[in-house]
Design brief:
With about 475 residues, this protein is an alpha+beta fold.
Length: about 475
């Protein structure tokens, strides 16, 4: 055992000894080494730790139950056997779901102490020999005999999202500020920076970016790392969560000319990501009379929404995929792991859904995303202003991809782009209480009145595709209004 590990368990035990009585997530023993009883304790302490919001439960040998004095123990888990099988191996086979339990032997005040570290239950109650136990006072009881505690325990499993799981454990106050860009939090929140490190750490803990551990040290949560890490590479299982931006030459993926991985947390890196993408977007040249003007092909508002969406709506539990934005000569694609949470046809009017509510809530506070949901309505607004096609969304079992495409003129649009834009424009106006007439859609496509037959054709194709319909089938031609097919 390393010095750091030794110090962790010594600190843990000393802290627990100061508490007046045992809680449901830890227990003291002297020399009791009965395998059946240890198995029951693993189940009860694991389940009780989950109920009390603790990462681990602890069974500790060598501490007096009454006085909390260090008395030492003769129990040796490495020598204990069940038949010919080692105790630890036997316990692991009897516990469901499998837990990564750990026996630790150390010395305090010249006396032997043994600690059994037991992870809390996470997805279902922990059982021993198919029986589930819970701590009631200082006793192990059958969970099924306490239905209210059983219901509460099951509710706990819904309250432990990936965001609040731990990314890095057992670090000091000083290390918190080494791993996380704490001043950035206070800047984004427009708050004064506390004068002491303790004040900074307390605020980060209040936001669930870090959590205090049983031994008085701290752990960085996944949310804390994902939002404020100075370098996500310092968090082993979060390395692939960094936003990646790739610039290609041409329309395909065979010739990547630039690639940048933003290893900072999302909250601190967001503005840099958006500026970097905007710097890579091709400039469109427009000649009016004797003047030549260049303007960016894609609106910044749409780009910001794309970046926000891939961050907020990604499935953080998927391994091996990162949120990514790809820039081609005439299009941008943004993709993230995880399937679409809403019906694709209702992407503008559906109520907000997010896999990562805690993270999304904070990003709303600092205005990286909007309270009203996915941001597709904001994308539609910015694309409408530049007379560009509405965003195209593709989704599979484990990905969502959003595409923006630029065309030099409406004549170059594909038929599917026209139908999709007509439909989404109708949805946008419908949910905002705006009547959708031929003139409204003509304005969306940038069609002059003398060419209104063009928009009539687009409307006809969209109706035939089953995406929009007449609000009143009997209305005169000039009074026709259109609504989404689901209206």
């Amino acid at each position: 055992m390393t010095t750091t590990e030794q110090n962790f368990y010594v600190g843990l035990i000393n802290r627990l000894r100061k508490l007046l009585s045992e809680a449901g997530w830890y227990e003291y023993k002297m020399n009791n080494d009965k395998p059946e009883l240890i198995g029951q304790y693993i189940s009860s302490l694991s389940n009780s730790a989950a109920l009390e919001g603790k990462e681990n439960g602890y069974l500790i040998w060598g501490i007096s139950d009454d006085t909390h004095e260090i008395c030492g123990t003769q129990f040796s888990p490495a020598k204990a056997k069940i038949g010919n099988e080692e105790l630890e191996n036997w316990l692991v086979t009897q516990i469901k779901p499998r837990l990564n339990i750990k026996f630790v032997e150390l010395e305090m005040e010249g006396k032997k102490i043994v600690v059994l570290e037991i992870p809390c239950a996470t997805e279902k109650p922990t059982s021993f020999k198919d029986a589930e136990y819970i701590r009631i006072g200082t006793y192990n009881k059958m969970l099924k005999d306490f239905p209210e505690k059983e219901r509460t325990l099951w509710r706990c499993f819904d309250k432990n999202p990936f965001e609040l799981a731990l990314a890095r454990e057992n670090i000091t106050e000083a290390q918190v500020t080494e791993y996380l860009d704490c001043p950035a939090y206070f800047t984004l929140m427009k708050l004064p920076l506390p004068s002491s490190r303790k004040g900074i750490v307390e605020k980060m803990a209040n936001e669930n970016f870090i959590s205090e551990m049983d031994n008085g040290n701290y752990a960085v949560t996944n949310m804390g790392a994902l939002l404020f890490a100075k370098d996500l590479n310092q968090f082993q299982h979060l390395k692939r969560k960094a936003v990646r931006v790739i610039k290609y030459n041409g329309a395909g993926r065979t010739n990547a000319i630039r690639e940048e991985v933003f290893a900072q947390g999302y909250a601190t890196a967001f503005e840099n990501i958006c500026r970097y993408i905007m710097s890579l977007i091709p400039q469109n040249e427009e000649i009016t009379g004797t003047y030549r003007r260049e303007h960016v092909m894609f609106p910044e508002k749409a780009v910001r929404e794309m970046v926000g969406n891939v961050i907020i709506h990604q499935d953080l539990t998927v391994r091996g995929q990162d949120p990514m934005l790809e820039i081609f000569d005439t299009r941008i694609e943004a993709s993230n792991p995880g399937s679409l949470l809403v019906d694709m046809d209702r992407i503008i009017d559906t109520a907000p859904h997010s896999r990562n509510e805690a993270m999304a809530s904070f990003l709303r506070i600092i205005h990286i995303c909007e309270e009203r949901g996915s941001g597709f309505d904001r994308m539609e607004e910015s694309l409408r202003d530049l007379k560009m096609p509405s965003p195209k969304v593709e989704s599979g079992d484990d990905f969502v991809r959003t595409k923006l495409t630029w065309y030099p003129s409406l004549n170059c649009w594909k038929k599917e782009d026209k139908i999709r834009t007509c439909y989404l424009a109708t949805c946008y106006n419908y949910v905002n209480g705006i009547e959708v007439s031929n003139a409204v859609l003509r304005d969306r496509f940038g069609i002059e009145e003398k060419n209104k037959a063009m928009v009539s054709r687009i409307i006809k194709d969209t109706i035939e595709a089953g995406m929009i319909k007449l609000e009143d089938d009997n209305a005169a031609t000039k009074l026709r209004r259109y609504v989404p097919y689901w209206a």
